[in-house]
């Protein structure tokens, strides 16, 4: 289920990385590095009250990771050992 607080870190076709809300036409943030976009997305979600940040793979197909930002509840806490 998609929350209004969820954000996606996706590759921009013109280069760099964007932070976007679900179904958004425009990015809220554009960075050159994926790590910078991921950090900014987590800040945005935290300010909105928590949710999910989904990070796209470098080649642009599928997502490589999903991270729950507090105070949202992680749906799979025992399996998510990355963060």
Low-confidence stretches: none
The first-to-last residue Cα distance is: 21 Å
List the total number of helices: 1
What's the count of strands? 5
Please identify the structural class as seen in this structure: alpha+beta
Helix content: 10-25%
Rg calc: 12 Å
Order of helices and strands: EEEHEE
How much β-strand is present in the residues? 25-35%
| Biggest sheet layout | 5 strands, mixed
Folded structure, characterized:
With 83 residues, the chain is an alpha+beta fold. It has one helix spanning 34-47; strands spanning 7-11, 17-21, 29-31, 51-56, 63-69. It has one domain (7-69). It is globular and about 35 Å long. The model has no long low-confidence stretch (mean pLDDT 87).
Keywords:
5 strands; globular
Summarize this, please?
The chain is of the alpha+beta class and 83 residues long.
Could you outline the blueprint of secondary structure elements for this entry?
Layout: E1 7-11, E2 17-21, E3 29-31, H1 34-47, E4 51-56, E5 63-69
Parallel strand pairs: 1-4
Antiparallel strand pairs: 1-2, 2-3, 4-5
């Amino acid at each position: 289920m998609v929350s209004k607080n969820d954000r996606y870190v996706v590759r921009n076709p013109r280069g760099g990385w964007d932070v976007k809300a679900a179904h958004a036409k425009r990015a809220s943030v554009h960075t050159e590095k994926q790590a910078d976009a991921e950090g900014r997305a987590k800040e945005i979600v935290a300010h909105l009250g928590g949710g999910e940040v989904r990070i796209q793979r470098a080649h642009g197909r599928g997502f490589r990771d999903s991270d729950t930002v507090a105070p949202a509840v992680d749906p799979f806490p025992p399996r998510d050992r990355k963060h």
